[in-house]
Amino acid sequence: MDWVTTLGGDRVGRLLDAVPDPTLVVDDSGVVRFANGEATRVFGWPRQELLGRSLRELVPDWDADKPQPTGRGQSLSHALARHRNGRTVPVDLTLAPIEESTGFVAVFLHDVSSRIQLEQEAERTRDELIANISHELRTPLTSIVGYLELISELGEDEVGPQARRLVEIVARNAVRELRLVNDLLAVSFVDDYLARTSLEQVDLGVLVGQVVEEQQLFAHGAGLTLRLQAEDSVMVRGDSDRLVRLLENLVVNSCKFTPPGGEIRVTVAGDGPNAVLTVADTGIGVSAAERERIFERMYRAPGAIDRQVEGAGLGLSIAKAIVEAHSGTITVDSTPGLGTTVQVALPRSEPRL
Question: Which of 41, 203, 270, 349 is least surrounded by Cβ atoms within 10 Å, i.e. has the fewest?
Fold first, then answer.
């Protein structure tokens, strides 16, 4: 039965035809029964050729098994409408039942190409601003750190105990700020940063051991125990500098989110074709909702903000990018109040004979 006849006239059809957004009407099986003029423009099919087509064919993101919308309807953001020539257009969909008893659903499509372009331009502008500011900060900070290192090397007759202690405090804070600036630069140019990745055979256990040793002082200062268990000769093809950055970010992140008296356990092991690095802590943990966003750039979990944990939310996003540049995977398992485990799997390579 024709949907217009079912609804008792073509008044609804005329109204939908006047809607400025592309609009379809589908039946309870997801088959198109009406298309307005704007819909023919978006999909490239004449109106009569749109009728009888499946909504799933026109909008591949649409799940035909979803229950039909009821009441005020439902929305689907960031879907792709497929033109007859294969080109796709990003759209937001709003679905609303025309009348509960008929089974017909109006599908309103809103072309969001311009909005996405504006968002991309805004992101590029933000990255350029961050990069410019970071460059301006990096030069004086590098100089400050260098001169502080020179002061720390002076003899006791030139720098007294109290002055040396103050210099150490300044140096520690300057190094932390320099690390943040370097993170900002890396995240601004992450594609260029990773494009310079130089792969060579690396013993992951040895590399992790060096990082853990270097971070022992930081962990001890935070009242934490940092332990390492590594198998021998767990080889990967990787960029040593990038992998060190990855390891530092994971270990420092665990230290920052673990209360004094806690423990961070770092393990390296072979698991079939993969080398597996695990960083497990007894820290504050994160909720399931927070885990969904934990690798987003500049995302800071509410727990970090509440506890005034230092950082800009860049470490894990950089870590994820480095892992993916090495064709690996990174996952997080966490329970609030009990701790967090981050696991990295990298393709294993055979040691050279």
Answer: 41
- Can you tell me the distance from the alpha carbon of 215 to that of 90, in angstroms, rounded to the nearest whole number? 46
* Cα–Cα dist 170/317, whole Å: 28
Three-state secondary structure of the chain: CCHHHHHCCCHHHHHHHCCCCCEEEECCCCEEEEECHHHHHHHCCCHHHHCCCEHHHHCCCCCCCCCCCCCCCEEEEEEEEECCCCCEEEEEEEEEECCCCCCCEEEEEEECHHHHHHHHHHHHHHHHHHHHHHHHHHHHHHHHHHHHHHHHCCCCCCCCHHHHHHHHHHHHHHHHHHHHHHHHHHHHCHHHHHHCCCCEEEEHHHHHHHHHHHHHHHHHHCCCEEEEEECCCCEEEECHHHHHHHHHHHHHHHHHCCCCCCEEEEEEEEECCEEEEEEEECCCCCCHHHHCCCCCCCCCCHHHHHCCCCCCCCHHHHHHHHHHHCCCEEEEEEECCCEEEEEEEEEECCCCC
- Report yes or no: 282 and 262 within 8 Å, Cβ to Cβ: yes
pTM of the predicted model over 0.90 = no
Could you give phi then psi for residue 149, rounded to 5 degrees? -65, -40
121 in Cβ contact with 175 (< 8 Å): no
Domains present along the chain, CATH in parentheses = 3-111 (3.30.450.20), 116-188 (1.10.287), 199-347 (3.30.565.10)
DSSP lists the bridge partners of residue 91 as 79, 111
Backbone angles phi, psi at 44, to 5 degrees: 80, 5
Q: At which residue do the structure tokens 């930081």 appear?
A: 218
How big is the chain by its Cα radius of gyration, in Å? 28
